[in-house]
Amino acid sequence: MNNKIVTDKHNETRSKLMAKLLPYVRKNGFQLLTMDEISRIMGISRATLYKYYSTKEDIVEFIVDSFVQYIHEIVDETSGEKMGDRFQQIFEQTVLLMQYITDVFLKDLEVHYPEKFDQLGEALKTREQQILDFYNAGIKQGIFNKINVKITIKQDEILRDILDAKYLMENNLTVYNAISDYYTIKKILLFIPDKLHTVDDKAMTPKIEYMAAKITKNLF
């Protein structure tokens, strides 16, 4: 039991330290980072850093494994009464993944850590197929509109442009407004009018607030 507690605390600290590094990595990648720079960004000494990460490769592996684990958290649920909940879970995950798995991050990963790039790519492909199956199941059950599901997924790439500091300022938008409005658009596009009431928007409000606060901190 004591060993488990120690391990849990160790992993919790690793996650907290990584959360401090991710905003930098999403913007700049990680190839030029040194362990000294990483310790500075994390706000710890180099000696403390080595207690939790032995090498930069260890850090990259932890980041990718964390993303993969998060991707696999979506429950493969297609029953009618759970469609609203799963739609919201997918939406939240889409926004956060779009923020952190950037083109800069992926390029670094592909060039310098191809095995981890492939691992992340496979997880993302599996996720996309699960979402396609979810959309198609909703259409068959008469819950979703008859839409092109592949285009619907592709549409989410617009989030990269919407959640851009310059775009937000030029259009007098807050991050919260942008996420909330896009959520409403996705919901209306997906659910037939008679089924919109099955989506609990009140449950989504704190999630949007959380995402907005996290993304705003990274942007400005």
Query: What structural class is derived from the secondary structure elements?
Result: mainly alpha
CATH topology title: Tetracycline Repressor, domain 2
How many domain units?
1
Task: Detail the poorly predicted runs.
Answer: none
State the major sheet.
none
Instruction: Give the C-level CATH assignment.
Output: Mainly Alpha
In total, the number of strands is 0
Using only C-alpha atoms, the radius of gyration works out to 19 Å
Mean pLDDT: 91
Total helices: the number is: 12
Please state roughly what percent of the residues sit in beta strands, choosing from under 5%, 5-15%, 15-25%, 25-35%, 35-45% or over 45%: under 5%
CATH architecture label name: Orthogonal Bundle
Overall geometric form? globular
Question: Main traits of this protein?
Answer:
220 residues; mainly alpha; Tetracycline Repressor, domain 2; 0% strand; globular
Can you describe what's shown?
By secondary structure, the protein is mainly α. It has one domain (64-219): Tetracycline Repressor, domain 2 (Orthogonal Bundle). Helices cover 75% and strands 0% of the residues. It has twelve helices and no strands. The chain has helices at residues 2-28, 35-42, 46-52, 56-71, 83-100, 103-112, 114-140, 149-155, 159-162, 165-170, 175-190, 201-219. It is globular and about 60 Å long. The mean pLDDT is 91.
Secondary-structure blueprint:
Layout: H1 2-28, H2 35-42, H3 46-52, H4 56-71, H5 83-100, H6 103-112, H7 114-140, H8 149-155, H9 159-162, H10 165-170, H11 175-190, H12 201-219
Helix pairs in contact: 4-7, 5-12, 6-7, 11-12
